[in-house]
Structure formats: C-alpha cells, structure tokens
Amino acid sequence: MQHKNIILRSLKESFLLIWKNKKLFALLFVLQIILIFMLSFFNVTYGTKIIESEKAIMDYLQSLQMDELSIASDIAQQKSILGDDPLSISRHFNEMIKNFRLYLIYAFVSMVIFTSIIWAITHKLVHKANRTQLKIILFRTFIVALGYLGLIFLFFFSVFSISLTESLSVAAFFFTKYMPFLLISMALFYFMFVSLSLVHNTELKEIIQRTLFVGVRKAHYISAVYIIDFILFIAPSILLFYFIENTFMLLLSIIIFTSSFVFGRILLVNVVEKLVKD
C-alpha cells in the first residue's frame, strides 16, 4: 500500500508542478526537442556515411570472382584473389570506424551538456531552487552525467577501436564477448537517473552511497517509475508509427513523445525525494 501511495502521490504532485510551472515545463520541452533533433542529425549524417562505406565494401566483394577456377587463375598469374584494389576494403572499413567514433564523440558531448542543463532545470521546477542553488545543482548534474556517460560511451568507443581482422572475430563472438559490457551499460543508465535525481540535496561525495541505497534497497519503487515512463514513451511511439502520414496525429505524437521525457524526469525526482526522506 505504501508503495502505491508514494507513486500515486508523486504522480499527482508532478502534474500539479507542471501546471504551476508552465514556462519551465515549456523550456524543458524545447530543450528536449533540441537534444532529440541534434542526436537525430548526428545519426543521419554519420549513419549515412557508415552505410555508404559498408555498401562500398559489399559492392567490391560482390564484384570479385571467387569461384575455384578464377581463384586458381589468379594464383597462377600471381594476382591477388581480392581483386585489383584489395586495400579498398580496409580503407572503407577504417572510414566506417572513423565516422562511428565521430558520431559517438558528438553524441557524448551533446548528451552531457543537455543532460546537465535539463536535469538542473527539472530540479528548479520541483524544488524552487534559487539562482545560487541552481548553479550548484548544474555543476553536480554535469559531474554526474560526465561520469556515467563517460563510462558508457567509453565502452562503445572501445568496441570500435578494432582492426578489420579483429572485427571478424567480434562479429562471431559478439554476444559472448561483449554482452557483459552491454549489461553493465544498462545498469549504469539505471543508476545514473537515480543519481541525477539526488543532486538537489546530496553532496557529490555522497552520491554513490545514496544512489546504491535508493537504487538497490528501493528498487521496486524505481522500477515502477521506469515502467510508467516506458509506457508514456511507447504509447506515442506507436501512434507515431501508425499515423506517420497524418500531419495532425504526427504532430500530436511528437508532442506527447517529447513531453513523456520531461514528465518522466519530474516524476522520478519526486519519487526519489520521498524515498530519501522515508
């Protein structure tokens, strides 16, 4: 019953806070839109380049004659079985790696900056923080976001710090070799949002201790919030998919989709505050 009361009270308070702080909510909405747009832009820009390099490799491989007669003929004539320009494969592969690294760098910088600002403003909305408090909160959110996202992006960056030869084994043993790191990244995301919800009244040196207390001992509350946030996130996503050709429904879905991120943070801050006081 207590579990239910905390969640319901936090939901009610979150809606009331949004109603009383429409300008701050609108600011958070705009910042969220900008972040989504930037990440989408980086994804399209560098994703397109990665796909082009991949296509170039596949086209070159498909142009090769790999039947037994052709291979035997190339060997007899002391020609490379990989065609006239075998180094093009490694060139395009290295280009893929370079573009993926650039994508990670730009995405990392954008997420750290916007995560810091968005969470700081969220705390201002919930806790009525003054200018001095807001500066302290902004500094703490920056350090927390930098730490968690740094670890997460470092893993993905290391995955693609490989040679063409190494990539063959990675493709074959990806799940057994890298799945533990993916699970660790998911755990880091789980605890990161808890830490960011604590920065209003928690010193940086106490963040880890309090995060573990709330994230582990109160995991059922945090999980309930994440489930609510997931539902709020997935519902407009479904609308977006089914009504993508309807301009009005498309716009409505985008508004709800973006608002779900903002509301989810406000709700989590409310719940975590109650769990710390409990």
Distance between the termini: 14 Å
For the report, how would you describe the main beta sheet?
Answer: none
User: Over the alpha carbons, how many angstroms does the gyration radius reach?
Assistant: 24 Å
Mean pLDDT, nearest integer?
Answer: 82
Query: Total number of helical segments?
Result: 9
Supply the helix-strand structural class: mainly alpha
Pick out the low-confidence regions: none
Instruction: Give the H and E element order.
Output: HHHHHHHHH
* Number of strand elements: 0
The share of residues in extended strands comes to under 5%
Backbone shape: globular
Helical residues, percent: over 70%
Descriptive report:
- With 278 residues, the protein is an all-alpha fold.
- Helices cover 88% and strands 0% of the residues.
- The longest helix has 42 residues, at 22-63.
Topology:
Elements: H1 2-20, H2 22-63, H3 68-76, H4 87-127, H5 131-159, H6 164-198, H7 204-217, H8 219-242, H9 247-277
Task: State the gist of this model.
With about 280 residues, the chain is mostly helical. It is built from nine helices and no strands. The radius of gyration is 24 Å and the shape is globular.
Supply the key terms:
278 residues; mainly alpha; 0% strand
